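Case study.
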Amino acid sequence: MQEEMTQQELADKVGVTRQTIYAMEKGKYSPSLELAFKIAKVFDLPLEEVFSYEGE
Amino acid sequence: MRKVNHTSYFNIHSAMNTSYQENRTISYLISMLLVTAYYLCYLWEEFQKGTFETDTIPSEWGWTVLKLIAAQIVLSVFASIGVSIIYAILNREMEKEVSDERDKLFELKTNQLSFTMFGLGFLSSMLCLGLGTSPLLVLNLIVLSIFVGSMVGYVAKLYFYRRGY
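After joint prediction, the assembly is written out as follows.
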């Protein structure tokens, strides 16, 4: 079972605001590569397992 | 578009409170509105006195504009402190002063918009000057375009924060 994490905890770990995490979850904001790698590192997962690409 | 696959890894907290950046923008907007309102009242009084019917720019106008800018800075600081206190009371926690890449993106977009508004105001002022409008009025049009440009930037920033991107 995956350990759950709040938006604020993740935001603190990668150095962004909770609103940025929220915007990413909603698919409204595409993070920079650096931030995407940081988030993947927090979850200890490959980038492609945390993020997916949706075409136009 | 990359999208966070959050189903297993995040808790979703859909309640969006206003962030530190939003609160700060609101405080700047309020202070800018107050200063602009005062400035417009002052201009109206001077207009009724017939001050603009001159071909020269009196030196005291320079000091008036500088005082306005100083007043705007002081008001912004006080408004920012006031908003922070209200936020702390309502949320029972201090605001976190974090500026990330999304904030910088919004900053860039709003700066471009503010600069465009100022540019349009400046061009209109030069057109008025070319058509024979009083130089004093042209000076005040330029100052007003700075104020309006800033306010449009703040409103746009609030819109971006509400929209989320």
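Observations recorded in class. The interface with chain B takes residues 2, 4-7, 10-11, 15-32, 35-36, 39, 43, 49-54, 56 of chain A (CB under 8 Å). The two ends of chain A are 33 Å apart (CA to CA). We will return to this complex in the next lecture.
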